[in-house]
Fold this sequence. Notes:
The chain has 862 residues and is an alpha+beta fold. 48% of the residues lie in helices and 22% in strands. α2 (17-42) packs antiparallel against α3, α5 (147-162) packs antiparallel against α7 (267-311) and α11 runs parallel beside α15 (608-648). The longest helix has 45 residues, at 267-311. It is elongated and about 235 Å long. 30% of the residues are buried. The model is unreliable at 664-670 (pLDDT under 50).
Amino acid sequence: MNLSKLLDDMSIENKGLRYTLTIAFAFFFLTPLLGFTHFVLKYQMLHDEYLPLFALGVLGSAFFGFYMIRRVFDDLQTTARDMEEMISKDIKGLEPTGGANELQGIVHTFQAVEQELLASFRNLDRRVAQISTLKELSDLCYVTFDTEDLFYVTLERAMKLIGADIGSVMVLEQPKRENFILQAAIGQAEMMRKGERIPFADSLAKYAVINKSPLLVEDIEKDIRFGRPNSRHYGTKSFLCMPLKGIKEVIGVLSLSRHSSNLPFTQEDVEVLSPLLSGAAFTYDNLGLLKKNEAKDQHLKVWDNINGILSSSLRANEMLNAILKQIQVDIPFDLAVILLESENSPCHMSLLTLQAEIPTVLSSGADYECDGTSIDRVLKQGASLLINDPDKFAHPTEQKLFDAHNLRSYLLFPLKANGATKGVLALAAKQPHALDEAQERGGRLADMVALAVEKERLWSSAMKRDQEMAMIKQIGSLLAASTFDMQAVLGHTMDLIRATMEVEAGSLFLVEKDELAFNVGFCTDKLVNMELLRSIRLKLGQGIAGYCAARGEPMMVRDTVESKEFAPEYDRRTGFITRSVLCVPLIYLGRVIGVIEVMNKKGGEFSGNDLRLLHSIATSVSIAMENARLYQETLSMAEQERGIRSMFQKFVPKEVVDKITHASGDAKSVINELKTLTLMNIDIRGFSHLSRQLGPQKTVAMLNHFFGVMGGIVFDHGGIVDKYLGDGFLALFGAPISDVDDAEHAVAAAWEMKAAVVSINAHFAAELDAPIAIGISIHTGEVVVGNIGFERKMDYTVIGDSVNVAFRLQELCHSVPNSILISEKTLQALSASRLSLREIDDFDHARITGGMKIFELLGWQE
């Protein structure tokens, strides 16, 4: 056996406590025992009777003590083994001591525990630092409203937590998410600048976005997923890309690397950064929602302000500029332009108004060709258009409007009215992508602009209509105030056209024997000799005016150079330069009676509104001219009517004439009809003697005076004088217009006529030796009344037996001077019973009246 091995086996090193205890007990027990045996033998103490007992006591005590110590050492060994087993389960990497000294095992265990505690303390310190960082970030989230500050602080704390010295935060561009936008960068200022755009497809960070999980690369050159050379701005081949997860989607990435250390990143670094980035992303979402709410509130406020502007009294460009200023509060822009489609020029846009924060040469009213431009695209598609690449502008119109101002971001919105796109609102900004998030809000505000433009258009249209109505009213007033002096009216009409339509020249031609003759005109150019136009006569079909008259249709020529109908020789004669013409015919009852022609619209071209206005004027003038002609005819007819009325009123009262004249359907009933009338016959007694006494001339004068007085009384009581009978006349009551009191009127007229004899006798007292006496007979009965005679001689008179009775009653008046005799039929027709009558009983009574009762009117009862 090898001695050294034997010695090693006997050595107490690497031996347990039990072995050590056994060796110690052997030395502790055997040495005293050998010494005791030596002394017993040397001094012969065996014969002592107590010695065996003493020896047995010593041996027992020694063995008991050994047993007790052995129990302690066994417990100590068990404890050491249990501790080692227990600690080895919780502490990874702890190696068991095997047969080594249990005390050394305990010491080893305590050392492992100490190391573990130290490691735990270090981890705890790191966690405290992480929690402190998260607390700082959370405190920042409460006080900052700037996402750039948030991302920079987040990047800084993340680099501190895992010992990185290169890092960046990139956010995905919205809404298309085609690029990363650099928000914060540390350690690579020369390579990456804030606001820089990195294509999504070209960046490794896209994998963190697509997978929504961290991208951990220990060595990019050996990683089978990439296998590419490391970028020169990274110090190591290891990097970590963490996604920033928002509420709905990944909003961006945080990338970390090291420049001064080759230590790769681990999963533990991912776990350390996860809560930090979650808090940052959550805060970013909250800030985004807060900004959205603020933007929405501001948008609603702008919307409300624009509604107020639309409801205000602002008009035209003043209203539109106020709206653009409100839009600028919601969408910051440097230039805003409102373009409207030209009504008269296809593919052309007119600049209605603009709002500029930069120097510009643009001006309202300018005209631009838009065919093939982005403006034309918006018009045709009816959808908004975002442009962030103005270098593509190649059309001259786009270069004038946009490129000349060195702007980098553009938003174009269609202006729709009644389902059709009528214009474009263009917003532009200096900063690239400055209008990317304004497309939706801008679309709603553009609708308000379209509403304002349409309101202005309707207001302008209403104003033009009012002007048209005012002009037509003025023409009507001229016609009403004039005595149908058409030359004066036509002159005033052309003056109104000049003041309202804003043209340089105008003329009115009238048709005379298949030609157009110049009548009246005007010209704002004082160098033009208008007298030269007096001799102008155009054949129908010659020139624009002749062509208009020949066809009877309006003509609008915006460029006379391209017109085949235009006749330039008249410009050469007058010195006037005609560029555009608007011509409308004067038509009445389908017949062209003339034309109105205006030339050269000031400040633009003729439009449909101009055509409608001039057509309305032409219609009024046509009617006025025809009315003048009819008026002349009416004057002639009125003169004839006045003559007829004057003659007719000599026979019937004016009221009766008016009723006959103004009657419509009843007019035919006054002729050739059977009616019940009251007839009055008045006769002068002794007329033959009077005529011989006065002579022919004085007799006629006396009769005219007599008939004037008596006929006037008949007319005053609603009767008519039917016919003169030499020294008397026959009067009718009830023709041609009947009345229930016709008989009453006849009796009242007869009584007044009897009283008038006194005044007539007084008038002729110097010429007559005896007073005039009369007789009046009144009878009521049926007669035929109407126009009696033939075509060349016709009288309005009555015939019938009742007429004969009235004449026969006159014979009874001879016996009673100045008497009034009333037949029984008249008395029955009277509605009053206040008459004082005397019945006539004469021998000739029955012969004359056929047995009818006759009464003399004596007066009126009280």
